[in-house]
Amino acid sequence: MFYWVVKAILAPILRLVFRPWAEGTEYVPRTGPAILASNHLSFSDHFFAPLPLPRKVVFLAKSEYFTGRGLKGLFSKAFMSGVGQIPMDRSGGEASERALATGLRVLADGHLLGIYPEGTRTPDGRLFRGKTGVARLALEARVPVIPCAMIGGFEFQPPGTIAPRLRIRPGVRFGKPLDFARYYGLETDRIVLRAITDEIIYEIMKLSGQEYVDEYAQRNKSRAQQARRARKQQAEPGSDGAGGGGAGGGAASAGGLLGDAAAGGASGAFGGADGPAAAGGAADAGAGTRARAADIVRSASDGGPAPDDVSAENAEPVRDAGSSADVGSVASRDGQ
Fold first, then answer.
1. The domain made up of 2-212 is a member of CATH 3.40.50.300
2. Domain-by-domain residue ranges, the chain?
3. Which end of the chain has fewer CB atoms surrounding its CB within 10 Å, N or C?
4. 128: nearest Cα among 162, 154, 91
5. b/e per residue, 220-247, with b = 16+ CB within 10 A?
């Protein structure tokens, strides 16, 4: 009940102030369980994805939203609960399995479960490799997956900012439901889980027009953080890189690391470790991406084995639940 009260109050305000737009809402089933798999550009995604839908969307959110102290923590817990968020422990192991069980329970109750397959917000606006929790949920619950693309959210509310940019109109685009019935009974096959996840991410890429990076977003964030720390250490007085050419060398080294992080290690299109990176969105994606994605979709459609480079070695064990599973690993890790 509280969900609908909050939505009834917020919806008119959000529409009036931010003028959000939506496409493809007819593809979202009005009843019955389904998974809404979306890219994750900013915190505002939690508002603008469910806004145009006439049914409740339940997200598995990071537990930190529910454990804060003081007045702010109390408000956060009340608000997140009110808008349909369910706390999720992202510590991995048994916690991930509990998050998966929670997602399955939401679907068993006939709800629409929201998931961010990337596992966390994009660090730079690009689309990153998906974690296989979304595929496992789809197979175990035997429900369709609706690809969803948030548009403009990264510019609307860049990382680290609170106040949105009013000149940006955020949008959401829904795609046709994906049916993975041909894979039912194979939810423990890591190669199948990887192929399904890549197919979902490919559909999101077509809807969003984002550049694809064949690397996990959290790994990309960690590399950038390490580069920033290295640069800071080099700049500190008394450090090996301080003063003269040493400082310049340290800065150059840190800059190289930052460049690598920005590049995102975009190495294969979908699942391969060494292939070419995707160059753009649906229309202008590089040839490597199109060929790689075509292999995946063709393999999925034929019911045949995944491409050679989609191997168990490259498959991600289901560790984290999603954004919120951010069922990234088991849905998604909504890391900041």
1. no
2. 2-212, 223-263
3. N
4. 154
5. bbebbeebeebbeebeeeeeebeeeeee
CA pseudo-torsion sign 89, 154, 2, 176: negative
Write the DSSP assignment of 64-127 as a string of letters: GGGS--HHHHHHHHHHHHHTTEEEE--S-THHHHHHHHHHHHHHHTTPEEEE-TTSB--SSS-E
Which pair of tokens denotes residue 74? Answer: 């109390």
pTM above 0.85, yes or no: no
Hey, is 179 helix, strand or coil? coil
Residues facing 23 on adjacent strands: 173
> Whole-angstrom Cα distance, residue 181 to residue 142?
7
**Of the candidates 259, 258, 271, the residue with the CA atom closest to the CA atom of residue 215:** 271
> Which amino acid makes up residue 167?
R
Distance CA 128, CA 217 (A): 6
SS3 176: coil
Tokens of 198: 């890549």
pLDDT per residue rounded down to tens, the chain (336 residues)? 677 877 888 889 999 999 999 999 999 999 999 999 999 998 888 889 999 999 999 987 766 667 777 877 777 677 676 666 777 665 666 767 877 888 999 999 999 999 999 988 899 999 999 999 999 999 999 999 999 999 999 999 888 788 889 889 999 999 999 999 999 999 999 999 999 999 999 999 999 999 999 999 989 988 888 888 888 888 887 655 444 444 444 433 333 333 333 333 333 333 333 333 333 343 343 444 444 544 544 444 444 444 433 333 333 433 343 344 344 444 444 444
Counting every residue written for the chain, the total comes to 336
Identify the helix (H) or strand (E) that includes residue 145. strand 145-151
**76-82, long-range: CB < 8 A, 24+ apart:** 79/6, 81/2, 82/2, 82/3, 82/5, 82/6
Fill in the amino acid letter for 291: A
Six token digits for residue 231: 């640069």
Instruction: Give the integer Cα–Cα distance in Å for 136 and 131.
Output: 10
